[in-house]
Amino acid sequence: MDWITSKGLIEYQEALNRMESKVSKIINNERNETIWLLEHSDVYTAGTSANIKDLKDPKRFPVITTNRGGQFTYHGPGQRIVYLMIKLERFRFDVRKYVYFLEELVIRTLDDFSINTHRWEQAIGVWTQNDSTSDPEYRLNRYKIASIGIRIRRGVAFHGIAINMTPNIKNFDGITPCGLQDVRMTSVARQGMEISLADFDESLKFNFDKLIKVTTT
């Protein structure tokens, strides 16, 4: 498994092109499976299930149609993007098992920093019940802290996870995130925590190595 960490902001389309190239080589057994850690410039992306009605402010940021599953989401500075290009045979070609693995990876990593998160049976992703800067009159028991979107091609899964570390949460206002009307977004910063990307990445790698061994045995 190769790990790549990119510094600086990478345009979404450039990252997509590079990921597509890597996936093709993995399919042809020309390179190792790869996990790529990066941050994007501001962008709204539309997954394969996106509804144009959920794009509320199309002039705010560039809008790119992509081939991952899911609906509209925002990417930008302060998000840790984790693109996993991995053979689904590790998970016995069970997509639900793979998504569960991705959720568990985020849950365990955030738990290392005392942030309690959970799954929500109605939607994919990672959720928390707290948001320190929420409108006190807005009572909601679920805030989304990480989004997941994947695509499978010839047995290789790609795309992956976006964890909200320190993004401007107001940037999600231009869309209905993931098509969910009754959900607000949160972040590590809005949980009152300060976590460097280096520390987060180290924990993520540690938890990945532990989980992948359990999953594939």
Written description of the protein model:
With 217 residues, the chain is an alpha/beta fold. It has a single domain, classed as Bira Bifunctional Protein, Domain 2 (BirA Bifunctional Protein, domain 2, 2-Layer Sandwich), CATH 3.30.930. The protein starts with a strand and ends with a helix. It has three helices and eleven strands; from the N terminus they run E-H-E-E-E-E-E-H-E-E-E-E-E-H. The strands form two sheets. Strands 1, 2, 6, 7, 8, 9, 10 and 11 form an eight-stranded mixed beta sheet that branches. It has a three-stranded mixed beta sheet with strand order 4-3-5, with no helix packed on it. The longest helix has 19 residues. The chain is 24% helix and 31% strand.
- Please count the helical segments: 3
**Largest beta-sheet details:** 8 strands, mixed
Query: What share of residues are in beta strands?
Result: 25-35%
| Oligomeric category | single chain
- Summed over residues and divided by their number, the pLDDT gives a mean of 92
Shape: globular
Q: Which fold name corresponds to the CATH topology?
A: BirA Bifunctional Protein, domain 2
